[in-house]
Amino acid sequence: MTAGLVLDRLALRIHDRPLIGPLDLTVPAGVIGAVVGPSGVGKSTLLAVIAGIAGPGVTMAGRVWLDGTAIDGLPPEARRVGLMMQDDLLFPHLTVAANIGFGLPAGLSRARRRALIDAALAEAGLAGLGGRDPLTLSGGQRARVALMRMLVARPRMVLMDEPFARLDRPLAHRLRTAVFARIRAEAVPTLIVTHDPDEAAAAGGPVLDLQAADG
Ligand SMILES: Nc1ncnc2c1ncn2[C@@H]1O[C@H](COP(=O)(O)OP(=O)(O)OP(=O)(O)O)[C@@H](O)[C@H]1O
Q1: Mean pLDDT, the chain, as a whole number?
Q2: CA of 19 relative to ligand 1 center, distance in Å
Q3: Are 203 and 160 in contact (CB under 8 A)?
């Protein structure tokens, strides 16, 4: 069994048009791989296929393995993917604490939920801000809420689509360093879509450079 995420002769089509692949990639547990390539080549679609949330026009051949199990036939909720996107998509009508709590499994006691949320807030440097409306936070703070919401769900892999692209460079750099360290500590395989060569290098794992599929 190969621990981690394995794309095995994965090829994607959009309706009748080949989009990417066939390609192979192995991202071991605790390693962050980067997906790069020109705009429109299919980077976001690749992540959506791995997560099981691609639209009906997208078809795939090949297999997606996670820790030795083929996950490509599983419903998205069974894949246990943590997603972080450019727009962090925090729920504006929920408090910061409730946004993080949204990632927690059902069935926990109130006290346990509260303890986990407080620990996540403290880790993110947001202690005391749990009652705030997300729209009153800075971009960097919102990104940290999105990270903690993802991590409290204990994902088995992490997929990030330009999560820092909207932040200014110094902040993006600081946040990226912290997020990468935190994700490595979770020891899950991770893929990040990026246009930034520095970010791909900082990820440190394999780089998947997508080019337009021929024919
Ligand atoms: N469900 C769908 N139906 C039809 N076309 C789609 C669908 N999903 C994606 N596409 C098309 O597939 C192509 C790849 O899109 P995708 O967003 O994956 O590219 P990308 O490499 O992430 O681009 P960018 O770097 O600009 O974000 C685009 O031409 C897009 O319009």
Answers
A1: 92
A2: 9
A3: no
User: How many residues comprise the chain?
Assistant: 215
Neighbours of 122 (CB within 10 A): 12
Return the residue matching tokens 């946004």. 99
- 3-class DSSP state of 74: coil
Maximal CA-CA distance, the chain = 57
Neighbours of 205 (CB within 10 A): 21
Task: Give me the DSSP letters along 45-69.
Answer: HHHHHHHT---TTEEEEEEEEETTE
Structure tokens at 90: 């925090």
Residue 149, pLDDT score: 93
| pTM recorded for the entire structure | 0.92
The Cα–Cα gap between 138 and 143 comes to 9
Pocket of ligand 1 (CB under 6 A): 14, 19, 39-45, 55, 57-58
